[in-house]
Amino acid sequence: MMRILGNILVVILGLMVLGAPLALAQDAPSQEASEQASQTSDVQKANEALIKVLNDPASREALIKLLKDSTSEEGAGTDSNAQTGEGQATGQTASGDDESTGRGFVIRVGEYTKAIADEIGVVVDRSVHSLRGLLLIFSGEIPIKWDRAQDVLIQVVVVLGSAYLAFWAGQAVARLIYPKLSVRARYGGGLTRSFILVLTSIIDGLTVAIGLGVGYLVALLAYGGFQAGVSLQESLALNAFFITGMANVSLRFVFAPQRPELRLLPFSNASADYWYVKLRYYMFWVNYGVFLAVPVANIAVSFVLGNALRFLIVLIGMLYLMVLIARNRLNVREGTRTYAQTLQSGLAQSALTNLGNLWHVGAYGYIIAIFLVWVTRPFDATTIILRATGLSIITIMAGMAISLVMTRAIKGGIRIPSELREKLPALQSRLNAFVPRLLKLIRTIVFFGTILLLFDIWGLLSVIDWVYSETGARLVSSYGAAFMVLIVAFVVWLAVMSWVDLRLQSRAGYIVTARERTLFQLFRNAFTVVIIVMAILLSLSEIGVDIGPLIAGAGVVGLAISFGAQTLVKDIITGAFIQIENAINEGDVVTVAGITGTVEGITVRSVRMRDLDGTTHIIPFSSVDMVSNFMRGFSYHVALIGVSYDTDITYAKEAMAEAFRRLNETDFKSSIFGDLEMHGVTNFGASSIDIRARIKTRPGDQWSVGRAYNEFVKQVFDERDIEIPFPQVTYHAATPPFATDTAKAKEKVKTGSQKSKPVDDAPADDGEH
């Protein structure tokens, strides 16, 4: 009976082993093959035990009975669970949903705690089991095949030696090329440096590939021959060589030792060399230990020694990295803080500072996670770690390279060739107004995308599966289409603006008129509004927003505005017809709504003018009933000169003609069309006779020409003593009546007093009468 129960127990264990890969497959389908391969021997043993049980009638009956009992127990458990569920349903009505929710939370916490404890127990058990194998080796219970080990060691040394000789020869040739590339990188931009860094990494990878090829060739020629092929230990050695070489290429890409001009990260030369050397030691230890020493130990000695070596190699490597992190924790933190102060963005400074404070926590977690994977899943740990670590390194390097290139472009701005900048002077400013903001958005997307990809690589989130799902594909395609709509809209807007700039540039044989400049500027503003509205509506439509109600609402709002803002509509319509009729252009001197000034700007609904005093006036087109433009075709300066009534008119006309001749001898001659138009006497004024003449000028020059002509008229009139009269007033004092009577009385009194004087007071007669 004990034998039967023992066989049944083996069968049950075999069923559990068979079911374990299935259970794991539900959570991690990608690991199904590796789990089944690692447990093949146990499954075979369970199958053999099951065959024995089924062949023995007594054992078969005992197995059937045991399965029936387990089935009945499961049914009872199901009934009890159903009853418990009904009780819970009844209890929920009495005590509410909170109690069941709390119990469920407590149960989940307990399950998680139990799972963690089980994992710790598995790790401890595997560690003790691995170390116990060394005791068996040292005690002599497991013999060592020294002859086999010596042959394997010689083959490995020969193959690796030839591979490294070829690799060093390739590196010697590559060092002849690197100085020229370094000079170009030193004087190039960020994109050039990134390209040269990638190129040098490809060259380093090629030297590793050359060493690998030479190693395989030596292995074929020296040992197996082309027919027998390469032995397992030789293949393992060359695989370790290739993995280690590519790991060193990755380290050179990140730290760029002895090549500071190619370094993307802000490391000093000493720091870069330090981390490159220390991590290179770790790469040699782990790669050659796990990929070469452990398999060779399995072949030459036993799997017990290989398992023990794997555990020791991983443990020593983990301790080495932890000590390295502990020694450099403060240095890295200070370095990140110093570099964060050079950044312009406050968010970037805070993020980098926090990263420097917590980087060692993430590093410790990564190392412990790798150690747990090695201990708990030794058969497929290499695949998991290499895949996750390699993809993580590639993802981080790609994200860093893209972010650094974008950061340099954001700081330095977009620069276009000088020839194109001369033709389109506003193109560079437009690009720098939009592209850096777009690059900042893309850099943020790259950052979060890198984090999500790392989560997916380590199995924390299924980002790739979600992207390929129906919901993820729909969201990615819709938002990607919306983003592309915005990009295409910007490209179209930029092309149209550049075309307008070209049309507004004067060139040989073509002069841009003020009307063209005004119309193109209005077209530029209108097109900008149209492209913005269309881009926003199409982007909303791509992400699933129904823009029909928006368009209908805009129509209703537009109709309401048209009724409620009739003045605004009148402004726009009047302004449109004014532009069509070419009544006002930028730079014209006009009189609008009683204000005269120079037009500085025209919009759809108003005109902005600056008068002679420097005051700016913004006049809506609805208040414009007449436009007087002084800048159309040609202009006239009308000279109205007043002379005194006793002046010879012919003489005065000749003086005005002389003043015109002197004016023609100055620089104003190019602004004058034709001769002086003499109109003659036009008015008899109160104090002068007005003589009018007219000078035809270019539009806009009539005021300067008129001021200069007036100066010459004054000079000639002064030379010829021609009086330019000015208004004069003669005042007459009026005497009141009472003042007249008093004056007469005084006169009479004076006359009477003179008559009553003595005779001898009169003058003596001189006898001349």
Automatic annotation (TrEMBL):
<protein>
    <submittedName>
        <fullName>Mechanosensitive ion channel</fullName>
    </submittedName>
</protein>
<feature type="domain" description="Mechanosensitive ion channel MscS C-terminal">
    <location>
        <begin position="641"/>
        <end position="724"/>
    </location>
</feature>
<feature type="transmembrane region" description="Helical">
    <location>
        <begin position="480"/>
        <end position="502"/>
    </location>
</feature>
<dbReference type="InterPro" id="IPR057485">
    <property type="entry name" value="YbiO-like_TM1"/>
</dbReference>
<keyword id="KW-1003">Cell membrane</keyword>
<keyword id="KW-0732">Signal</keyword>
<dbReference type="Pfam" id="PF00924">
    <property type="entry name" value="MS_channel_2nd"/>
</dbReference>
<dbReference type="InterPro" id="IPR010920">
    <property type="entry name" value="LSM_dom_sf"/>
</dbReference>
<feature type="transmembrane region" description="Helical">
    <location>
        <begin position="195"/>
        <end position="224"/>
    </location>
</feature>
<keyword id="KW-0472">Membrane</keyword>
<feature type="domain" description="Moderate conductance mechanosensitive channel YbiO-like transmembrane helix 1">
    <location>
        <begin position="388"/>
        <end position="466"/>
    </location>
</feature>
<dbReference type="InterPro" id="IPR049142">
    <property type="entry name" value="MS_channel_1st"/>
</dbReference>
<dbReference type="InterPro" id="IPR045276">
    <property type="entry name" value="YbiO_bact"/>
</dbReference>
<dbReference type="InterPro" id="IPR049278">
    <property type="entry name" value="MS_channel_C"/>
</dbReference>
<feature type="transmembrane region" description="Helical">
    <location>
        <begin position="547"/>
        <end position="569"/>
    </location>
</feature>
<feature type="transmembrane region" description="Helical">
    <location>
        <begin position="285"/>
        <end position="305"/>
    </location>
</feature>
<keyword id="KW-0812">Transmembrane</keyword>
<dbReference type="InterPro" id="IPR006685">
    <property type="entry name" value="MscS_channel_2nd"/>
</dbReference>
<dbReference type="Pfam" id="PF25392">
    <property type="entry name" value="MS_channel_TM1"/>
</dbReference>
<feature type="transmembrane region" description="Helical">
    <location>
        <begin position="152"/>
        <end position="174"/>
    </location>
</feature>
<feature type="transmembrane region" description="Helical">
    <location>
        <begin position="311"/>
        <end position="330"/>
    </location>
</feature>
<dbReference type="InterPro" id="IPR011066">
    <property type="entry name" value="MscS_channel_C_sf"/>
</dbReference>
<keyword id="KW-1133">Transmembrane helix</keyword>
<feature type="compositionally biased region" description="Polar residues">
    <location>
        <begin position="78"/>
        <end position="95"/>
    </location>
</feature>
<feature type="signal peptide">
    <location>
        <begin position="1"/>
        <end position="25"/>
    </location>
</feature>
<dbReference type="InterPro" id="IPR023408">
    <property type="entry name" value="MscS_beta-dom_sf"/>
</dbReference>
<dbReference type="Pfam" id="PF21082">
    <property type="entry name" value="MS_channel_3rd"/>
</dbReference>
<feature type="domain" description="Mechanosensitive ion channel transmembrane helices 2/3">
    <location>
        <begin position="526"/>
        <end position="566"/>
    </location>
</feature>
<dbReference type="InterPro" id="IPR011014">
    <property type="entry name" value="MscS_channel_TM-2"/>
</dbReference>
<feature type="transmembrane region" description="Helical">
    <location>
        <begin position="522"/>
        <end position="541"/>
    </location>
</feature>
<feature type="transmembrane region" description="Helical">
    <location>
        <begin position="236"/>
        <end position="255"/>
    </location>
</feature>
<feature type="transmembrane region" description="Helical">
    <location>
        <begin position="351"/>
        <end position="372"/>
    </location>
</feature>
<feature type="transmembrane region" description="Helical">
    <location>
        <begin position="384"/>
        <end position="406"/>
    </location>
</feature>
<comment type="similarity">
    <text>Belongs to the MscS (TC 1.A.23) family.</text>
</comment>
<feature type="transmembrane region" description="Helical">
    <location>
        <begin position="445"/>
        <end position="468"/>
    </location>
</feature>
<feature type="region of interest" description="Disordered">
    <location>
        <begin position="740"/>
        <end position="769"/>
    </location>
</feature>
<feature type="region of interest" description="Disordered">
    <location>
        <begin position="70"/>
        <end position="102"/>
    </location>
</feature>
<dbReference type="Pfam" id="PF21088">
    <property type="entry name" value="MS_channel_1st"/>
</dbReference>
<feature type="domain" description="Mechanosensitive ion channel MscS">
    <location>
        <begin position="567"/>
        <end position="630"/>
    </location>
</feature>
